[in-house]
């Protein structure tokens, strides 16, 4: 059924196109196409079968709705979120409809626990119950209720649930509970410990409290801003950077004055004593890549100077199976009419040098001569060739002779080495 031609439905009604017919029957073209062409439904069934998303549904209170979309609109939840909760996270219909969307997954928004207590952020709520924010998110995604997500004790995996003591000898059930007692976030505690702080300094040094929101705020210089967003925009700090730096325990001055990206550069010198801001700048100056320099020094055993300045290390003299010497591997490949496949044949397939050079690739006959339209192998050294629209049987040497005559200029140097250079087009 073509959309550009007139079509007729099962009742005999004629339409200018399939799109007009689908519009008349209140069905999308994609649904009609899947039913009629893929599922092989009859024309009547493809047009009249009601979609499952438009069937009447009931919520957990027994209220009936004409469609799933209408029910989700009533409960102010996206249909995709409802389907994910039901089919992916195995949540009940009540939890899928009543769990607020993203209200518990935003760092700077106020939230409420199962007892009705309100907190300025999820981080503060998790700290109160002695669990990590990431643990809370994971539990909620797995379909846990809000009460169970907050009150279920942490597992002892990785020591997160083991009893700990502070510098005064006070014992706590876990690290999160100890951090809560000292008014620290778990991320701030971890950052300070990894930075080499002592336990006493980590727990007793107050973390500067910065509330993310649209309320008025003051920066480290005392300037007042109508919102935190405008203050971050003035200092060139993104919202995500601001939040992550708070969790790392940075002061407000450090958060606002550090650049967006901190470049880790280390000064270095080349073999001549020239100074560069970084190795990357030095490699760019010598037009070399770090991988090539490293390989030359480690595998080839070259000095630092040669690794930076050598340009023709790939040019090495080589000899074919007939004993003919070439200035470089590229010259030998050109002479025998093979390209990059030499490395695949010789290194990976472990072919002999003779088989590698004499095996002709018949897929590209034009490379041997512009008058050759087809090449087919008959025997080991003989090929069927269509040359100027006539069929011939040529030996491999004849085929290569045409190639060298037309595209190569072969000569013998004073040292007895064969040089093969392509003509300029």
Could you walk me through the main structural features you see in this protein, from its secondary elements to its overall organization?
The protein is an alpha+beta fold and 425 residues long. Among the domains are: 7-49, no CATH class; 268-309, no CATH class; 318-422, no CATH class. It is 40% helix and 13% strand. The protein is built from 22 helices and 19 strands. The strands form 9 sheets. A 3-stranded antiparallel β-sheet has the order 15-16-17. A hairpin with a 5-residue loop joins strand 1 (7-8) and strand 2. The protein is flat. The model is unreliable at 103-107, 156-160 and 209-213 (pLDDT under 50).
List keywords for this structure.
two-stranded antiparallel sheet, single chain, 425 residues, 13% strand, three-stranded antiparallel sheet, alpha+beta, 40% helix
